[in-house]
Amino acid sequence: MRTKQQFLLLVLGFSVSLFSAPASAVIQWTLNTGLTCSGGANFGNSCQKTTDGVQVNARAYSTTLNTANTALETAYLGVYGGSGGGLGVTNRDGAVATSNCGTGKDCGEGTIANTTPPEHALDTNGRTDSILFTFSSLIKLTALSIGYPGSNSSGIDSDLTILAYTSADVPNLNGDTYQGASGLTTQGWKLVGQYSNVADAPNNTVTVNSAGLYSQYWLVAGYTPSFGGPGNWSIGDDYAKILTLSGGKTTNVSEPNTLLLIGVGAIAGIWGRRRRQVAR
Q: What is the pLDDT of residue 275?
């Protein structure tokens, strides 16, 4: 016959098995179609999409706030359809001309009215672009895919940097830099990983976030060495349109499981009382 201690350990183990590792169904947000955008064709616009009850809001940023091209401010978020589509960025310093385009301009970046490939994508040519993804729930990001470029080629790379916001407040990227005293890692951001040659990965998709972090705020940027990384990665030639994000949402213990746990606790209490009565 089991002892009281053995029985209680059995009950405890069963209870822990119900509460451990909250259930997390994988959700994929496809970002080349079905988005609702606000702000029009202007810098600082944003686009939203809800999938499986979880909304993601996307807003573009780039390093155009100061003459050193290191401080972030809002940019234009472009939505491009088709298999080579996704979310791209056009920054405030953009010019259509590829040379002699004026002091302080990002030659070849293009403009909102006249986007220019390849810099109509999220890129690091001249300025370092990024997209802030804000979710309506805590999300464990697990994968990311790009629609552009289809593969790396001469002068076209696809390295990305991903960060997650770990502070309790709402992040404000305006004026922040990727490094230094106002660097993102001093403002509540944590490096998730650096991912090389995404365009050459199977299905242009990489698995991310090996640490299993959960956050409402995720920043995807063109590769920047501000956070370290291999010294042999090229700089300033990364381009990507973000096509899909995949991740899991934590869920609370379901009502049936809660009732079951209450029942198990009641049985344990009754069993303990009966054992004490028999022992008298």
A: 46
Residue with tokens 């079951």: 260
* pTM attached to this predicted model: 0.83
Cβ-Cβ contacts under 8 Å for 30 (sequence gap 6 or more)? 49, 51, 243, 244
Task: Answer yes or no: do 184 and 280 share one domain.
Answer: no
Residue with tokens 């640490």: 211
Q: Which residue type, as a one-letter code, is found at position 108?
A: G
My answer on whether 230 and 213 are in the same domain is yes
Q: Both 208 and 280 in a single domain? A: no
Q: Are 161 and 218 in contact (CB under 8 A)?
A: no
Residue 27 identity:
I
Task: Give the separation between CA 199 and CA 144, rounded to whole angstroms.
Answer: 11
Query: What are the tokens at 196?
Result: 């090389």
Can you tell me the mean pLDDT for 224-245? 92
The tens digit of pLDDT for each residue in 11-55 reads 334 333 333 345 468 999 999 999 999 999 999 999 999 999 999
- What range defines the domain where residue 277 resides? 1-22+252-280
HEC states along the chain?
CCCHHHHHHHHHHHHHHHHCCCCCCEEEEECCCCCEEECCCCCCCEEEEEECCEEEEEEEEECCCCCCCCECEECEEEEECCCCCEEEEECCCEECCCCCCCCCCEECCECCCCECCCCCCEECCCCCEEEEEEEEEEEEEEEEEEEECCCCECCEECCEEEEEECCCCCCCCCCCECCCCCEHHHCCEEEEEEECCHHHCHHHEEECCCCCCCEEEEEEEECCHHHCCCCCCCCCCEEEEEEEEEEEECCCCCHHHHHHHHHHHHHHHHHHHHHHHHHC
As a whole number of Å, the CA-based R_g of the chain is 24
Six token digits for residue 237: 């030639």
